[in-house]
């Protein structure tokens, strides 16, 4: 992509602070204006708690990691299990931490696609450990249990909504009302739900008239219900370049 392709487009980034660095750098490099409003904080569980929880679990045959955060905080507790990941970002995180990925969807980055992997079809009697935050979707566990697997969770972090001062929210409102927020990027349904809880009423009204970019079809569906009439663009994936391509697509149809 050429420099300045974003040419002053204001992009609201809702990713957790520690995961937004590449997004901010890429948007700025392309001439856009990165506006950070993290809608989620990732808080690691105490090491002693994690180790205590691990001691109560069975030795896994397969360990499924649902996110890069799960890899960062839980890969040390995978033992000799085969490593499965939800999407490409999680796979990259695993390799950066010295583990190869054994099971991964070929063409997707959600639970539905991972469940199509050949290695997860015949799992009767196998112990599968799902490493995640304190809460999450139950589709993986439910489906694998139907297939006969013994599924256990290991929670290595919790997610919470950040607290913002009135002054911080006022600055976002002022930018939005001044027309400086052109696109909002949303990575998950939970992120969209958190954003709606955080934003002042004035911004929620403006959100309906702001382009929304996401790599997740479930976000598109949720947005259609929560924000009738909002313009959504589905990115082909969660990578930075995928999101930027989608931003360009929705601003230059």
In short:
The chain has helices at about 20-30, 45-55, 70-75, 90-95, 110-115, 140-145, 165-175, 190-200, 200-205, 215-225, 240-250, and strands at about 10-15, 35, 40-45, 60-65, 80-85, 105, 125-135, 150-160, 185, 210-215, 230-235. It has about 250 residues and is α/β, with parallel strands linked by helices.
Structure description:
- The protein has two domains: 121 residues, 3-Layer(aba) Sandwich (Rossmann fold); 119 residues, Rossmann fold.
- 38% of the residues lie in helices and 20% in strands.
- It contains eleven helices and eleven strands.
- Strands 3-8-7-4-5-6 form a six-stranded mixed sheet. Strands 2-1-9-10-11 form a five-stranded parallel sheet, sandwiched between helices.
- Strand 4, helix 3 and strand 5 form a beta-alpha-beta unit.
- 38% of the residues are buried.
- The mean pLDDT is 94.
Fold topology:
Blueprint: E1 10-13, H1 21-29, E2 33-36, E3 41-44, H2 47-55, E4 62-65, H3 68-74, E5 82-85, H4 88-96, E6 103-104, H5 111-114, E7 127-133, H6 139-146, E8 150-160, H7 166-177, E9 183-185, H8 189-198, H9 201-207, E10 211-214, H10 217-226, E11 232-234, H11 240-251
Helix pairs in contact: 3-4
Q: Any idea what the radius of gyration is?
A: 19 Å
CATH architecture of the largest domain: 3-Layer(aba) Sandwich
- Number of domains as seen in the coordinates: 2
Beta-sheet strand percentage? 15-25%
Span of the ends, CA to CA: 17 Å
Order of helices and strands: EHEEHEHEHEHEHEHEHHEHEH
Q: What would the principal axes of the Cα set say about the shape?
A: elongated
Count of DSSP H/I helices: 11
Helix content: 25-40%
Query: Mean pLDDT across all residues, rounded?
Result: 94
**Count of extended strands:** 11
């Amino acid at each position: 992509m050429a420099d300045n392709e974003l040419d002053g487009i204001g992009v609201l980034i809702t990713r957790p602070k520690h995961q937004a660095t590449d997004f901010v750098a890429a948007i700025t490099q392309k001439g856009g204006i990165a506006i950070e409003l993290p809608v989620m904080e990732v808080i690691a569980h105490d090491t002693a708690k994690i180790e205590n929880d691990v001691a109560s679990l069975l030795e896994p045959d397969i360990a499924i990691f649902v996110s890069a955060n799960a890899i960062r905080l839980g890969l040390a507790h995978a033992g000799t299990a085969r490593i499965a990941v939800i999407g490409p970002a999680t796979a990259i995180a695993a390799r950066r931490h010295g583990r190869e990925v054994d099971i991964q969807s070929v063409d997707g980055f959600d639970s539905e696609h991972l469940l199509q992997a050949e290695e997860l079809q015949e799992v009767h009697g196998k112990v599968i450990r799902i490493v995640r935050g304190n809460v999450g979707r139950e589709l993986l566990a439910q489906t694998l249990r139907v297939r006969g697997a013994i599924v256990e969770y290991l929670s290595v972090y919790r997610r919470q909504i950040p607290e913002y001062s009135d002054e911080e929210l006022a600055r976002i409102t002022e930018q939005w009302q001044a027309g400086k927020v052109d696109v909002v990027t949303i990575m998950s349904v939970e992120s969209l739900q958190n954003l709606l809880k955080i934003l002042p009423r004035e911004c929620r009204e403006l959100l309906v008239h702001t382009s929304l970019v996401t790599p997740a079809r479930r976000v598109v569906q949720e947005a259609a219900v929560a924000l009738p009439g909002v313009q959504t663009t589905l990115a082909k994936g969660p990578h930075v370049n995928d999101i930027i391509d989608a931003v360009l697509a929705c601003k230059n149809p």
